[in-house]
């Protein structure tokens, strides 16, 4: 079974009439996987509904503790992209777990969102990678300690 922890971020955002007003809504991951007819057993647990810029080390510790107490060794974390690398670094050195973080540059509710593709990549990565912490974005798997978010190009890259 794959355990999916959601923390919020753009993947779960809902925008209102004005472009600068939004709120992090309900986790979208279960609906995405159900519509994709995924047959892998998974369970979703929503830990928080925050923009990643609002996450602090107390939130990261909640996530770390949840992963440590989880029986499954295959872990997915949906997360906002702005501080995803920082959270991935915080999750280092958790033994016997394959932890893959992902998110999206556009809300999952948008027709052209990258959320569905990123989540699909993450689902496969969590099943086949060795224990460790990874980021799955833009069709690639990244070592979070050697990657950056290129804000100008709206993508993740190696350092």
UniProtKB/TrEMBL annotation:
Which SMART domains does this one have? Asparaginase
Chain ranges of the L-asparaginase N-terminal domain: 2-150
Q: Which InterPro entries match?
A: Asp/glu_Ase-like_sf, Asparaginase/glutaminase-like, L-asparaginase_N, L-asparaginase_N_sf
Name this protein carries in UniProt: L-asparaginase N-terminal domain-containing protein
Source species, please?
marine sediment metagenome
């Amino acid at each position: 079974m794959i355990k999916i922890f959601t923390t919020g971020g753009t993947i779960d955002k809902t925008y209102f009439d004005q472009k600068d007003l939004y709120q992090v809504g309900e986790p979208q991951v279960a609906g995405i996987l159900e519509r994709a007819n995924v047959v892998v057993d998974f369970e979703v647990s929503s830990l928080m509904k925050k923009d990643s810029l609002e996450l602090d080390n107390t939130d990261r510790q909640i996530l770390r503790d949840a992963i440590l107490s989880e029986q499954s060794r295959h872990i997915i974390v949906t997360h906002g992209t702005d501080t995803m690398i920082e959270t991935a670094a915080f999750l280092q050195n958790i033994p016997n777990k394959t932890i893959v973080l992902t998110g999206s540059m556009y809300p999952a509710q948008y027709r052209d969102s990258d959320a569905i593709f990123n989540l699909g990549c993450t689902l496969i990565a969590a099943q086949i990678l060795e224990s460790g912490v990874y980021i799955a974005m833009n069709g690639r798997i990244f070592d979070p300690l050697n990657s950056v978010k290129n804000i100008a190009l709206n993508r993740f890259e190696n350092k």
